[in-house]
Amino acid sequence: MGHRETLYHGGRIHTADTKRPEANAVAVRDGIIVAVGSEQQCRSSLSQDFDSVDLTGAVLLPGFIDTHLHPPAMIIYELGADLTGVASMEDLRRRIREMAEKDPSSNWVMGLQFEDQSLVPPRLPDRHDLDKACANRPVVLMKRDGHTVMANSEAIRAAGVSGATPDPSGGRIDREPDGSPSGVFRETAAQILIDAMPFPDIQTIVDAAASVFARLAANGITSVGMILQTDEEGISGSKGVFDVPLMELVSDAIPISLYTILAGADINKIKAAQHSVLHRSEPGRGRRVNGYKLWADGTFASSTAYLRLPFSDGPDKTGFLIHKPEEMYRRMVDAHNAGLQIAIHSIGDAGTQVCIELYDRLLREFPRPNHRHRLEHASLLDDRLIADIVRLDLVVSTQPIFIHSEKGWLHQRLGPDRAKWVYPFRSMLDAGVRLAGASDAPVESLNVLHAIQCCVTREGFEPQQAITADEAIGMFTINAAYAQFEENVTGSITPGKRADLVILDNHPASVPPESIKDIQVQQTICAGRVIYDAFSTKS
Which DSSP string corresponds to 353-397? Predict the structure, then answer.
């Protein structure tokens, strides 16, 4: 069981607390940090009976916080095949055949993390491509960004889609010359295919959830901003109605803190979730439902982000808004006046401009201090947009790891001038933006160290927007805590805060920048309890 008191010493302690950035020791009692400073000070704050953890030169940091991910989708992704690295249409067909052979039943074949930009030449597969791989069973592929689905003819038939099926609001079905579906479904149209897929059994889901949260702990993550649906709006389609019940089902087995942001047309469903197990005070971990999620536009990868000027490699496309501005505003007013934090997905500069105008109107008509309303991604900005973000006191939740996935094609898609303002971390921090880190998993990897590396090196992409390793750590600790109204509870190694900690074998600022991603998480501690130990057979 271990002692209720622990002393950490013998290594580098990075507190993320500007009042005391470094320390020699940390004392913890009953899951709370009671002293930070010299080893003698910390020892004297404990009784005679405590565990002594000698870091032996390792680094102690606040536990990492990922402010934006999708656990239900992560759970489903555990059950599909990873198509990362597929390099040709022939390679893709081979992988689909292998998936089908592994499961010889009549089940749907699901491929995930597909990226058309890795194909030579880049293109999305249509139903004919997928039929050549597997014609007698439904096949569905999810693009890496989660905003486009590709399907074979059998899956299209099973979903009841034909040439007569209209494009849904906020979505697009690619079509052949005769009007029949080509097999590519974008934005809300993707939900048609997802809705038709069978749901896994409960035990399969519970097992997959255990795997997902073990992986979070192994990456040093002690708190997450959890995006859930209440209806068909979002990555899970109509299955989104199961998001809240699913997370309620597995909540007791989740060792980390959960900050829930809910999407859906009915604000009453969000308020109802505040009476669930996802919103209750628990010793040692937070459970809070406090956010409302909206989608303004799509993504760069699917060419659906809403831009002021056309895509450089698609002069007939400027992307589009998912909802009309008046519908967005109606929902924002409801959420704001219900005391919720609003979090709007916006990628393109025109999409973010719409969000800023709506936030400006909202805060003029219904002033509210400390609202901490958010922009999720805010991927393409300029000086004026950044100044407005600061003026309105908006928080930005950004995904540095997107740089790793997108750097090879962003210049072609947006052109050299706009690319200078993609994921502009340096410009945002210099202007005073509250910048929090996230992964958007399952879209991207949970590896926080790789995300920090992307902040520092930019992997060569627009390096003038690079920030320091310490600034990047702040994005995933104290800034992320602020984004979730948790800065008084966690996010730094400060007396009185919860002992959410991570031990690394090296400090991101002490290794060559291109090696940050190789730093190993040795231990993850949530409220003083070890939830992951790299040296133990069980974590």
Answer: HHHHHHHHHHHHHS--TT---EEEE--B--HHHHHHHHHTT-EEE
Distance separating alpha carbons of residues 353 and 228, to the nearest angstrom: 25
Write the CB contacts of 377 (distance below 8 Å, at least 6 apart in sequence): 345, 346, 347, 397, 398, 399, 440
Q: Does the pLDDT value for residue 539 go beyond 50?
A: no
Answer whether 402's CB lies under 8 Å from 380's CB.
no
Task: Report the length, in residues, of the chain.
Answer: 539
**What's the whole-number mean pLDDT along residues 348-376?**
98
Let me know: does 444 contact 343? Beta carbons within 8 Å.
no
What is d(CA 410, CA 425) in angstroms, rounded to the nearest whole number?
Answer: 16
- Helices 349-365 and 325-337 meet at what angle, rounded to 10? 50
Tell me the C-alpha distance between 327 and 331, whole Å: 6
Pairing of strands 501-504, 521-526: antiparallel
Distance of CA 51 to the CA centre of its chain: 35
Whole-number CA gyration radius for the chain: 23
Burial 55-91 (b: 16+ CB within 10 A, else e): beebbbbbbbbbbbbbbbbbbbbbebbebeebeebee
Indicate if the pLDDT at residue 503 is higher than 80: yes
Q: Read off the pLDDT of residues 115-142 as tens digits, 9 standing for 90 and up.
A: 888 888 889 999 999 999 999 999 999 8
Q: How far apart are CA 502 and CA 476, in angstroms?
A: 12
Q: Is 438 helix (H, G, I), strand (E, B) or coil?
A: coil
Q: Which residues of 187-210 are buried (b: 16+ CB within 10 A; e: fewer)?
A: bbbbbbbbebbeeeeeeebeebbe
Task: List pLDDT tens digits, range 506-515.
Answer: 999 999 999 9
Helix (H, G, I), strand (E, B), or coil: what is residue 303? coil
Rounded Cα gap, residues 273 and 278, in angstroms: 7
Burial category of 316 from C-beta neighbours within 10 Å (exposed 0-12, middle 13-18, buried 19 and up) = exposed
How sure is the predictor about 102, in pLDDT bands with cuts at 50, 70 and 90?
Answer: confident
CA 138 → CA 82, 183, 194, 197, distances in Å? 17, 12, 12, 9
Q: What is the DSSP letter of 340?
A: P
The percent of residues above 90 in pLDDT, for the chain, comes to: 81
Residues paired with 28 in a beta bridge:
6, 33
Structure tokens at 222: 């002690």
* Domains of the chain (ranges, CATH numbers): 5-57 (2.30.40.10), 65-70+203-523 (3.20.20.140), 80-196 (3.10.310.70)
Structure tokens at 503: 């031990």
Helix axes 383-391, 349-365, angle to 10 degrees: 30
